[in-house]
Design goal:
Blueprint lengths: L8 E6 L5 H8 L7 E5 L9 E7 L5 E13 L10 E9 L3 H20 L27 H16 L17 E4 L20 H8 L2 H67 L8 H4 L1 H21 L11 H6 L12
Parallel strand pairs: 1-3, 1-6
Antiparallel strand pairs: 2-5, 3-4, 4-5
Helix pairs in contact: 1-2
């Protein structure tokens, strides 16, 4: 592993946390007693030296250190549910040591609440990773990773409180900056502590499921509605008895009026229906069409003109009449002898 004077490849994670408390609450599942998971888009080689830094929203580093890449995942198919690397912590800054301790305490508390039993802060080296299941047969591990973890354990054990050396500055050309503003796994639900002097009905309601609580609530409401229904029946019974004859008389008086109104409505509807469906009265074609009317008027005018031209004048003799010219006969006066 490289010394502090070298500048290893770094990963800087920009979080959306405003305070250290928010960072601990969101990222306490990223670490265990000897390593920390860091999201990254690149695939560094296993066993390579790596510097990491988790920064707050304002850019202030909250967890910085040097380590060795133990495992790298190029996809999100891993116990953390995100692409990244697991870095074994070799050296942390003086300001990061208390933060790392708070992360371990928060994770141990969350695991104890999830499993229902208390767990110590420092777990043995055989601690399971998140999401892993115990196997009946011991799993064989790569010798390089075993040696790396042993070296990390020895170096961290040799470091005391306040003896952490400053981490070498990051190489800006090889440092990757990743923005990660969400927890990898949602924190375990925290139930409020029960006080010994709490009423028994609160404990019973917490022990019941949602459906049982709903059924109990409905049963209580139904039990309360029983006396109310009886009270309403006792108060409204006499009123209903007095109103029933009056309503019958009013109904008998309104029935003929309703019949006449229905008959009048039917007659009016039939009249409107027949008027709406009556065949329309159309004017003649020549009256509706201006062109036909004009042709008709022109024909009448032409006929009148021709008749005027064909009629003889008063001073014209019978010889010059058109009829005589056509027949070739002359009109002679006929003498009728009276017997």
């Amino acid at each position: 592993m490289g010394g502090p004077s070298e500048r290893p490849r770094g990963i800087r994670v920009r979080t959306g946390c405003a305070t250290e408390d928010e960072f601990v609450a969101m990222f306490h599942r990223n670490c265990d007693e000897a390593s920390v998971f860091t999201p990254t888009e690149k695939d560094p080689a296993v066993g390579a030296d790596c510097a990491f830094s988790f920064d707050l929203a304002n850019g202030q580093p909250v967890l910085r250190g040097l380590g060795v890449v133990l495992t790298a995942w190029s996809t999100a198919d891993n116990p953390f549910g995100a692409r990244g690397v697991q870095i074994g912590c070799v050296q942390l800054t003086s300001q990061s040591e208390p933060v790392f301790g708070r992360l371990l305490v928060a994770r141990a508390t969350a695991d104890a609440r999830a499993e229902g039993e208390a767990r110590p802060r420092a777990a043995p080296a055989t601690q399971l990773l998140w999401g892993a299941t115990p196997s009946e047969e011991p799993m064989t591990e790569d010798s390089v990773l075993v040696e790396t973890r042993q070296t990390i354990t020895r170096e961290r054990a040799a470091m005391g409180d306040g003896t952490a050396a400053p981490v070498a500055p990051f190489d800006a050309r090889s440092t990757e900056t990743v923005r990660h503003e969400r927890p990898l796994r949602p924190p375990a639900p925290v139930a409020p502590p029960l006080e010994p002097a709490e009423p028994s009905w609160v404990i019973s309601s917490l022990a019941l499921s949602a459906s049982d609580r709903l059924a109990a609530w409905l049963a209580a409401k139904a039990a309360r509605l029983g006396p109310a229904r009886a009270w309403l029946a006792a108060r409204l019974g006499p009123v209903r008895t007095r109103l029933k004859p009056w309503l019958s008389a009013v109904t008998a008086r309104l029935s003929p009026l309703a019949g006449r109104l229905a008959a009048a409505t039917a007659r009016e509807f039939r009249a409107e229906h027949s008027a709406a469906h009556a065949p329309p009265i159309h004017p003649p074609l020549w009256w509706r069409n201006p062109r036909v009317a004009a042709v008709f008027a022109l024909g009448i005018t032409f006929g009148v003109v021709v008749s005027l031209m064909m009629r003889p004048s008063r001073g014209q003799t019978a010889r010059s009449s058109p009829v005589a010219a056509i027949t070739g006969e002359q009109c002679r006066p006929e003498t009728v002898a009276m017997a």
